[in-house]
Amino acid sequence: MKMVLSLVNLCAREVVSDHSSSPYWLNCVPRELYRALLDAAFTHCRPLAVGELVQRWPERKLIVGGNRKAGECPPNRLCVQALLLAVVRGLTDKRCSLQMLDLSGLQCEDGRVEDSMGGWSLSVALCSMVLQARAAASRAQRKDGERERKRGLEAERDRGTIKRDRGKVGCGNSGESSQGGHRVEVEKMECRTNEQMLAEDESVKGIRRRMEIQRRRTLSEGKSNISNNSSLCNQDWDEVVMVHVRADLFVNSRSWERVRDALSQPGPLRLHCRYLRVEELLAPSIASLLGLLPQQDLFGVDIRYSSLGVSGLAMLLPLLAPFPQLHSLRLHYCNLDLQRTQPGQEGALQDMSKGLGSLKRLKRLCLTALRLPGHLRLLLSSLSQPLEVLELPYLCLTSTDLAYLSCSQHAPFLKELDLSENWLDESSMPSLRRLLAQAQSSLCQLSLCGCGLSDTLLGALLPSLSCCRVLRSLRLALNPLSRTGLLSLARTAAGIPSLRLLLYPNPLEEYEPGLPASPSSAQLLDWPLLEESEGRELTLRLLDEVLNLRGRSRDLLVTSDLLNYSPDLTVDD
């Protein structure tokens, strides 16, 4: 079977490589080969072939993007643009059967991949496609209306001609009186014809007047950019949609208006959002955006670098409750600083707790740098279902917060846990060990980067780590460990059969002299390493010996590179 598939892919690559031959094979290729041809066109960057295939796509559904395999490059920018243009052209192509276009996961946020399309660029291009299709439909509708108006005028003229012919038949056949009567009748008919034309002109003016009133009314409602679509505004989505487009949207202050316009009015293309990422938007703008999204399709919301405050977040959370499929909420740097007491703060926290409690299917919660010390119980106890992914970096967690988390309903179900940049001391160890014991059968990813773990603290934690039998990723960078402590960590990590990634800190022996006794993560990040490579070579050699002794040199990646390690290693095989 693999040989047959490989042969099909090889032939498809040859077919799409020569665009001059496309008129010959496009008319005779069976529909079963369209997918292989499109994949080959994407893989080998043939945007013209992409456009021609999508414009006459023979199936109702087309999926582009999705979860890419390790090492697989995302589609080229030119190919994506050709696809979007072809979707618009396909709306008027009778050969196209497309009704659902799924572009979820198509974006590429890796800046090292050349000529790929990031989430923001893809979102802008999608919205431009929707607006372009709507404008084309509006122009076509206006042309149809003008054509109907002309037919009506021609029909009126034909009726006038028939009446004139009847008048001629009724006149006398001789004498000047007959000719004079004929002239009088002609003059009367001309007067009536002129009156009809004037009436028709007034009718046309009346239509134009009504259109102008409608246009001004639309402008007054703040929708001037879609005034040409007034005939579509009063129709339901189901009456006008020809293709549903599903994608992940990335919206910021520069693209918000365009995204709003694409979502707000019916047209032949309807945009559905799977994951919404928002940056640098105020709470009212985010609320307006949420009100325009189709409710059945949204899986996750990611809000970053937006100055929401506690009150703004408390306002937004209830607006997420109507989305029945929502299972992921991520909040990064949203300016929720509760280390400083502010008026009305406790009431807003209660509202936040109620808002989180209204998200009945929430499985992933990320609260990055919100600085909420001592409030974890208030926020998480309102959730009706246990979380599977919990990310709490830079949250200023206290020992009380960890004690609650270790005994909460969430602990036995956690698959991913991130407590990075929360300072851990001896008082935190009992709660953390209890938490790991509760999650040992489910925890797949654990991050404790920058937590101030010394050799002593880590030594107390290693027995609990060794019991996590399904752990695949362990990240402990930027902790003040000596080389001896690092080797103890490596031995424990090598003894976990499921582990595939260990991100370890540079040992203290590799830093320049002068480092404080208990350095913070910021100091470890900024402090220079020794120029000579002997210390690093010694560390690597000792780590290799540990891995070889346990037989883990091939399936366990051990690295200290914060920037270039691959998170794909944590995905199940």
Automatic annotation (TrEMBL):
Keyword terms, alphabetized: Cytoplasm, Leucine-rich repeat, Repeat
Compartment list: Cytoplasm
Protein name, entry field: Uncharacterized protein
Membrane-spanning parts: none
Signal peptide residues on this chain, from the entry's feature table: none
UniProt entry tagged with the keyword Ion transport: no
GO CC annotation terms, alphabetical: cytoplasm
Broad class of the protein's primary localization: cytoplasm
